[in-house]
Amino acid sequence: MKLNRTNTILAALMLIQALAVAVLALAGRAAPIQNTGAPLLAGFDPETVTQVAFQDADKNEVVVMKDAAGVWTLANGYPITETRIAPILNSIKSFDTGRLIAQNRSSHTRLKVADDTFERRIEVKRGDTVDTLFLGSSTGANATHVRLGGSDSVYLVSGLSAFEVPTSAVSWVNPIYFSIDQSIIQYLKVENANGVFEFRRDGESLVFSGLGAGEIANPTLSTSLTNNIASIRLDAPLGKELKPEYGMDKPLAVITIQTRREIMPTPTALVTNTPDPLLPPITPQPVQPQIEEKSYTIQIGAKLDEGYIVKSSESEFYVRIAAFGAEYWVNMARDKVIATPTPTPTVDPNLTPTIPPTLEMTPSPIPTVTLTPMPTEVSTLEPTTEATTEATIEATGTPGN
161-177 pLDDT, tens per residue? Predict the structure, then answer.
């Protein structure tokens, strides 16, 4: 009976202790959380957005905006890839307040949604309304902390993470600035500080026109020419404004390209017979290809920020490209387009050939070998007792006979 009473007292003490722990835990928490699941940005419609600015923790920033024609561009007017902006705006529309994580400002830095500590700062403009969102750390593959500017509440949302929001301009545009079909290039001219270099198509190759007597072109020249001109990638889109630092008043290289290709017209339905049987049938005429000839110019300006400024006649925008892509044309020289011949050894006609002396082979005498006979070995063994006894018996007869 006494044991049962002791157990009851211990159980009561354990219950009191558990209640105390729960009270202390609740005392350290914020006010009770009410998850409403309402949109984080009330009435947000991606179609009404006219400008978005994206900034990362290193203060790199890119601004995209919608022009009067409804086309999305960078702030300098360079067109962006619209498939980039639409998913981001749709994700922002889906943000809701269903998962409240914190309501204390002291948590902002830890969750990387503070005004000065964040993964991404997104400023969205809709007419006269400007909303600021702070994208913070992620807790999983599809869960990111987000805070609306002016509020201390931090929510966990899905559909968008910081790495899906680029802050470099080149990530928002088509990186191919200029491209051309190599097979239709008929003529290519390069002008730089080293001279003028012209190349014309001969069969499948572009051949250097300035070969001298006995010279041959670099065998890899045609391939390197077409590979370098077929596609020019940009490092940074710079806009339409021509600035003095671009160096286009004295370009380092000018590339001129002429192309020619055949275009077959779209076939149309031919009537082979007329309704009137008295008229002769119509004979179909063969379709003749149309010849299209076109000329392009590419200017390479000054070196700027580890790259070179480039302007194509096909674009109204200036761009910067990587140094290695530009220097192929800037540094082109005659010794790079001409193959270095293998030197042929020459013989001096006045030189008397030296004939090495003939070596006489004197045979070495064969040494005489004297054979010494081996001495005959004489046996010194004494006859055994058994043999003597046998001889005595033969001479005298067997005893007792």
Answer: 999 999 999 999 999 99
Q: Which residues pair with 100 in a beta bridge?
A: 155
- Condensed to tens digits (0 to 9), the pLDDT of residues 39-77 reads 999 999 999 999 999 999 999 999 999 998 999 999 999
Domains with residue ranges and CATH for the chain: 46-172 (3.30.1490), 176-266+289-337 (2.60.40)
E strands, 81-204, are: 100-102, 120-126, 129-140, 143-148, 154-157, 176-179, 185-192, 195-202
Q: Taking the model in full, what pTM does it have?
A: 0.70
Q: What are phi and psi of 26, to 5 degrees?
A: -70, -30
Kindly write down the DSSP assignment for every residue of 164-196, as one continuous string: GS--SGGGGS-SEEEE--GGGEEEEEEEETTEE
Cβ atoms 53, 123 nearer than 8 A: yes
Q: Which two three-digit tokens encode residue 160?
A: 């968008």
First and final CA of the chain: distance in angstroms?
Answer: 133
Contact 257, 229 (CB under 8 A): yes
CA distance 36 to 22: 26
Nearest to 31, CA basis, from 96, 107, 97, 102: 102
Rounded distance, CA 238 to CA 310, Å?
10
**DSSP H helical ranges for 281-384:** 323-330, 334-337
* E strand spans, 313-391: 318-322
Q: Is 178 exposed, middle or buried (0-12, 13-18, 19+ CB in 10 A)?
A: buried
Place of tokens 């001298």: 212
Instruction: Report the side by side order of strands in the sheet with 195-202.
Output: 205-208, 195-202, 185-192, 253-263, 290-304, 307-312, 318-322, 236-239
